[in-house]
Design a protein that fits this description.
This protein has 306 residues and is an alpha/beta fold. The protein contains 14 helices and seven strands. It folds into three domains: 146 residues, Conserved hypothetical protein from pyrococcus furiosus pfu- 392566-001, ParB domain; 52 residues; 49 residues, no CATH class. 49% of the residues lie in helices and 12% in strands. It starts with 19 loop residues before the first helix and ends with a helix. One of its GO terms (cellular component) is chromosome.
Length: 306
């Protein structure tokens, strides 16, 4: 089974990029406050025995859709575990699940005895953040590994996308484009991880709402060696709901509008709609569902306007 390879650093390093220096300044104080146990692990990914993992007693979900679980199990059988689970080390050779219940249960269904897992200990958030940011600076990371690291920083270290961008020296749009990759079907994530397709291909596919259509275009990319430009053109020519390809000629003004709509959707990380009449009068709609999303849109506008 093919799994991601991510190892945490075991010594302090320099030149690790924006944001890490500030974290390292406080590391001595952290070490004085808590002495690690002999088996303590700050942040690493290991292949551990499923029998050594205890379920989380605070897991809010107690029942899972059996059909969906079987589908996930079959995906894992074919593609392997793309996104490792996260566990907390309780003592030597004993762990408690933090996240990834469905992946764990699906792995048990197909008879797996080990599973890739991120190992954490209690009260290690700052060290986890340092290790993840340092890991992101590696030049040989693929797009999915970067996306997973970004997602962990947001969910496990309680960072907002703007804060994450400051830590790793990227703007919010770039961070969001990576995180959106994790919404793609597992088979496409695996292809991106294995460099079968490029980040440009994936960014074009992610703008399609229908997963079946995403996979159909992905097959075209692989079988017919589509360029990124050809994928973008195919996506622009999709029907409104993205359910099927539309074989028709598009007038130049409509093509320009579709191209602009595609670019704006990628920029803001949400589906942008554009309407215009023959006199080129119309409107652009950028939907948002919270104050936080509105703030992100305004931030992108300010950034692009500089």
């Amino acid at each position: 089974m093919e799994t991601l390879n991510s190892k945490a650093p075991n010594k302090r390093m320099t030149g690790l990029g924006r944001g890490l220096g500030a974290l390292l300044q406080d590391s001595d104080a952290v070490n004085r406050q808590a002495k690690p146990s002999p088996y303590e692990t700050i942040s690493t990914m290991s292949e551990i025995s499923i029998n050594q993992i205890e379920t989380n007693p605070f897991q809010p979900r107690t029942r899972f859709d059996e059909e969906a679980l079987q589908e996930l199990a079959e995906s894992i059988r074919v593609q392997g575990i793309i996104q490792p689970i996260t566990v907390r080390q309780l003592e030597k050779d004993r762990y408690q699940l933090i996240s990834g219940e469905r992946r764990l249960q699906a792995s048990k269904l197909i008879g797996m005895t080990t599973i890739p897992a991120y190992i954490r200990t209690a009260n290690d958030q700052q060290m986890l953040e340092m290790a993840l940011i340092e890991n992101i600076q590696r030049e040989n990371l693929n797009s999915i590994e970067i996306a997973l690291s970004y997602q962990r920083l947001i969910t496990e270290c309680s960072l907002k996308q703007e804060e994450l961008g400051e830590r790793v020296g990227k703007n919010r749009t770039t961070v969001n484009n990576y995180i959106r990759l994790l919404k793609l079907p597992p088979v496409i994530q695996a292809a991106l991880r294995d460099n079968v397709i490029s980040m440009g291909h994936a960014r074009a596919i992610i703008n399609i709402e229908n997963p079946e259509t995403q996979i159909r275009i992905f097959r075209k990319i692989v079988d017919e060696e589509w360029s990124v430009r050809k994928v973008e053109e195919a996506v622009r020519n999709l029907s409104t709901d993205g359910s099927e390809l539309v074989a028709r000629k598009v007038t130049l003004p409509k093509m320009e509008l579709r191209s602009l709509q595609f670019k704006l959707s990628s920029m803001f990380g949400t589906k942008v709609s554009i309407k215009a009449d023959e006199k080129h009068k119309g409107e652009i709609k950028i939907p948002f569902t919270s104050q936080e999303e509105l703030d992100k849109i305004l931030m992108v506008l300010r950034h692009e306007g500089k």
